[in-house]
Amino acid sequence: MAVYNSPDKDKDTKIHSKNNGKVLFIATVHSHFAAFHIPFMKMLQEKGYEVHAAASSVTGRRDDVENAGVICWEIPFKRSPYNPANLKAFLELRSLLKNHHFDLIHVHTLVAGFLGRFLAKSTHQGPVLYTAHGFHFYKEAPRRNWLIYYTAERIASRWTDGLIVINSEDFENAQKLGFKAGENLFYVHGVGIDLSEYTNPSVCKNYFRASLGIGQEDVVIA
């Protein structure tokens, strides 16, 4: 059993480790991990990895992540890239990465994703994987978004070993950023849905029409 001191707790955190390596997830808030990533964290743990998570607990659910056996670090990220408080988050994340080496870092969300990638490379961590949950530059986006966010992603691409995107437009824009499909660019169709879990939409429509006494040829405005 390995014992680690959390910087924002008075007691030690005890985690079983098979010493296969350490993985760090970085995002703006811990609730992001609780909502989407615990299954992946558990999968890595089952493979013998020690899993850490760095984020802010301002939106709650840090306990859910810790209860999954993940070592949580409090990093006070702010959602807005213009918030000067992100300087504190930068310094605290840098301190964490200077004191720990991770074999893989998986970053998410805008601010945490940018700062995490930069600091991961500047502190000589293992490979860095970034999941873009929707670029802020897209076809109808304001020119300002392209100027700021496209430029930021262009800069951050040099610190990104692998990029996951979840829609076709981001996939095309990622290629413009220099990523190559099948090498360091991976397209996942949305967050993933098992369609077999859902009833055929036409069956549902017919059922509700019948239950409301509406004929199949009647026009319905919702």
Helix content: 25-40%
Following the backbone from N to C, one meets helices and strands in this order, namely EEEHHEHEHEHEHEHEH
The number of E-state strands comes to 9
| Strand content bin | 15-25%
Task: Give an overview in words.
A 7-stranded parallel sheet has the order 5-4-3-6-7-8-9, with helices on both faces. It is globular, with a radius of gyration of 21 Å. The protein starts with a strand and ends in a 10-residue tail after the last helix. The N terminus is likely disordered. The longest helix is centred in the middle third of the chain and has 14 residues. Helix 4 runs parallel beside helix 5. It is an alpha/beta fold and 222 residues long. It has 8 helices and 9 strands.
Layout of secondary structure:
Elements: E1 2-5, E2 12-15, E3 22-29, H1 30-36, H2 38-46, E4 50-56, H3 62-66, E5 71-74, H4 86-99, E6 104-108, H5 110-122, E7 128-132, H6 143-156, E8 162-165, H7 168-176, E9 185-187, H8 201-212
Parallel strand pairs: 3-4, 3-6, 4-5, 6-7, 7-8, 8-9
Antiparallel strand pairs: 1-2
Helix pairs in contact: 4-5
Structure at a glance:
With 222 residues, this protein is α/β, with parallel strands linked by helices. The chain has helices at residues 30-36, 38-46, 62-66, 86-99, 110-122, 143-156, 168-176, 201-212; strands spanning 2-5, 12-15, 22-29, 50-56, 71-74, 104-108, 128-132, 162-165, 185-187.
